[in-house]
Amino acid sequence: MAKQSRPGERSRVAVRELERLLEAATALSRAETEAEAAQLTAAQAMELLGADRVQVMCAEAPGSSRFVNRGQCDIPIPLGEALVDAATEPSGTGVAVRTGQTVFVADAETSPVVSRRLADLLHPKSMVFVPLPGEGGYLGAVVAIWNSPRAGLDRFSQRAAELLSVEAGRALERTRAADRLARDLGWHREAEASFRQERAFLRLLNTIAVAANEAGSVEGALQRALDEVCAYTGWAVGHVYVPDGTGTLVPTPLWHLDDADHLRVFRETTDQTPLPVGAGLPGRVAASGRPAWVIDVTADTNFPRTGAAEQAGIKAAMGFPVLLENEVVAVLEFFTLERLEPDESLLELATHVGSQLSRVVERRRAEDALRASEERTRAVIETAGDAFIGMNDSGRVTDWNRQAEVLFGWSREEAIGQAVADLVIPPQLRPGHRKGLERFLTTGKSTILGQRLELQGRTRDGRELPVELTVWATGIGPTFAFSAFIHDISERKNLEAELTRQALHDPLTGLANRTLLIDRMTLALTRAERSQAPLTVLFLDLDGFKTVNDSLGHATGDQLLVLVAERLRESVRPADTIARLGGDEFALLLEGAGTEEGTLIAERVGEALASPFDVGGREVFARASIGIATGEPGQLSADELLRDADLAMYMAKRLGKGRHAVFEMAMHTAALERLELEADLRRALASGEF
């Protein structure tokens, strides 16, 4: 990525980077644990930036200055280890998190932002720290390390890293709550054989990577890989099979032979042996898409070239695929004259070599079929589950995918060139959008870039809907382009509203429950204190409801309660609150009503309940005793006012069924006296005074 390239090549690289980014976003969206998300981030960053090492550094806790190694590629440091404290030592990660900007370090050996511990351990030449945006701030940084000096990142590499960090931050936040302790990254080797082996491993990968980037053809890169792997392992034979598109692998003229004369028969046999997928070592690799190892091919029942191998003295074999996404585009096979047990480190090396070679195939395909590549990129965007909108620095639409058409109602043809604000932003939010864009273009500061925000969007027909927005900016020369993924969260918001409704309403009648009533009473009392208006509460208890339950059953009793709730709704004002407190008890909150008006409403409720109810074809009567309590502004709490109405209700019951009574302070005094008398009697009984 660091090489200078022609404009056409840069366009192709940009297209491929967008493809890789979307692939990375898809992979990250499927991550199930924080460890998986961090490791995917490291792997994707290593591939996108062509780095030698990558680690994902996350704050030990929200707001902490200590950063922990959560994910890595080729870093000999234990996962989960706190590597740096930005409050006490140099930290490029700390700078990136504090500023929200990508930090590139050309000379890591002398830079004041590179931890000396890291420098002494890894001896990096150049580094970059890319901040990871989260919902409430930056989570940490992706740290890429090169073993050779670099002058800087080209704009495509920086753009790719920053786009990846947006998706990575989203994945890390999503998975962190579910699994904060998982640290086992599957493909990371926990034990290296030795420092020399590690250096040789890295040198080989670097050599193949350079050769792959410099190769003029796919064949040239494959031949170089055969030679380098054989030189590294000391194995005698290397060869390439490729699929012919019909389910068959065919041999190629690409070979590495330590002794061509001695291995002539094996080569001739191989050149005449096409293999169906699943047959022989190459067929097995093509079928599984993974490296494979054979301890001794002469003893293997699935090796069609056994005779030629015996004549050549060939024993152990290893094969690995070159994968383009899930497609096997080549299989490299290697042979040695010794019988060897599987070497996991060598199989891992093979996987990395295959990854390096896949880049050559990707680049060649992009160069040979740029138009097809652009169509594939368009297809990825079009099939994304979220709306995707591109915008230029004038605020006009430059890209608009199929999901954006579905979500907002404007076709791509209608949207391109139009102002984003006019298409998807509610009128009340448009001034803020324009000011924010102007501020960013003037100062480089923004409150929304790199954040995941919940806002209101607007469809073509003027309907507003809640959306989740992730937007980022990409520098293009002296100006910027903006991209955004937008997700409709209406279903989630509706679910949240329904859960809230269920928590605050009686499931049988749909009326407010005690919690909601007390909350509304508290707010009403506050408003009454400001307006000096009265507030009245009616407390209802159905007379004889227990008899209905006992004689006709609880199902009939429940039906009766529902019918009572309906009549109560018809008896009060639209602004009044009706609540079921439990059992056969109801309460009415009457704002702005004094005792006189509350009494009138109580009479109206009594009249509404006087008529018989038809419950399952049976006439049932349900009159109510009603207590009335009026709260003067600033004198009572919600619980006290409800208590007073309850006391008045009991007074109404003593007067006879189907009556109402207004609370008087004497009722409260009598209730207190009864409580004191009961307490005195209990004490007397306990002490034997009777």
Describe the structure.
This protein is α+β, with helices and mostly antiparallel strands and 690 residues long. The protein has four domains: 170 residues, GAF domain (Beta-Lactamase, 2-Layer Sandwich), CATH 3.30.450.40; 162 residues, GAF domain (Beta-Lactamase); 95 residues, PAS domain (Beta-Lactamase); 173 residues, Alpha-Beta Plaits (2-Layer Sandwich). The relative contact order is 0.06.
Radius of gyration: 38 Å
The CATH topology label of the largest domain is: Alpha-Beta Plaits
Structural class of the helix and strand makeup? alpha+beta
Largest sheet: 6 strands, antiparallel
Order of strands across the main sheet: 3-2-1-6-5-4
The tally of structural domains comes to 4
- Mean pLDDT, all residues: 85
Which regions are unreliable across 5 or more consecutive residues at pLDDT < 50? 181-193
- Percent of residues in helices: 40-55%
The total beta strand count reads: 24
CATH architecture of the largest domain: 2-Layer Sandwich
Report the oligomer: single chain
Number of helices: 23
Which CATH C-level class of the largest domain is it? Answer: Alpha Beta
